[in-house]
Write a structure and sequence with these properties.
This protein has 222 residues and is mainly α. It is 83% helix and 0% strand. It has helices at residues 3-9, 11-42, 47-62, 65-77, 85-109, 113-121, 126-159, 169-178, 181-208, 212-221.
Length: 222
């Protein structure tokens, strides 16, 4: 049996595990965005705080996923959630912080000062300028951070199968346990295809959220 044949004969299971994988990744990205985007906006007003927040988020990125799952196990076990989707989602939220916070921060800091001064000149307050000028212009960079986090988390979520979180990593986990190459490759291929698909969707979203004026300016620069 080869990989396409394995996927065809196990189509229902492939679909269920893919949907489970998507749910884990996008639920964690949703939570991460709620935390990281406001944090990225707030730290644009304080350079010292910005460095501390970004460095802290960077620390989480350096912790191997298996080690992070192991660190959370005794804590979450107190609440009966040491294994399964809860620790997987918490880990993915933590890993997502750096790309989202950093891109939000960079996107807003790179808004042309002339536009900010123009907003100030017509009487806009700080939050009005943020809402109507800075965030819309920074939106493509923020979406790029979300895209990076989503694609990265698709891979990390594969490892979460080892703590009972489910998803496409189940094929890889079980394939290794059974020395079943087709199952391992099927899991790897489906994860790769999912990552490519999500990257394309996020790229499209990034494009449609880019203000038309910026698109015209980029075309002129080219």
């Amino acid at each position: 049996m080869n990989v396409p044949e394995f996927i065809y004969k196990n189509a229902d299971r492939c679909l269920n595990l893919t949907l489970e994988h998507i749910w884990i990744v996008f639920f964690s990205i949703f939570i991460a965005a709620i935390i990281a985007v406001p944090a990225g906006i707030l730290i644009t007003k304080n350079e010292r705080l910005a460095q501390k927040v970004i460095n802290t988020a960077n620390i989480f990125m350096t912790i191997p996923s298996i080690a992070l799952f192991g660190l959370m196990l005794p804590v979450l076990s107190i609440f009966g959630q040491g294994l399964g989707k809860v620790p997987a989602i918490i880990a993915l939220v933590l890993y997502s912080q750096l790309p989202i916070i950093r891109n939000t921060y960079i996107g807003i800091k790179n808004v042309p000062s002339s536009l900010i001064e123009a907003g100030r000149g017509i009487g806009m307050g700080t939050w009005a300028r943020m809402r109507q000028i800075e965030i819309p212009i920074a939106a493509p960079v923020i979406i790029a951070g979300l895209r990076t986090a989503a694609v990265m988390n698709i891979g990390i979520a594969t490892i979460a199968a080892y703590i009972g979180a489910g998803g496409l990593g189940v094929f890889i986990q079980q394939g290794i346990a059974r020395a079943y190459d087709d199952m391992i490759l099927a899991g790897a291929v489906l994860v790769a295809l999912l990552a490519i698909f999500v990257d394309l969707i996020m790229t499209f979203l990034e494009r449609i959220l880019t203000p038309k004026g910026l698109l015209v300016s980029r075309r002129r620069d080219k």
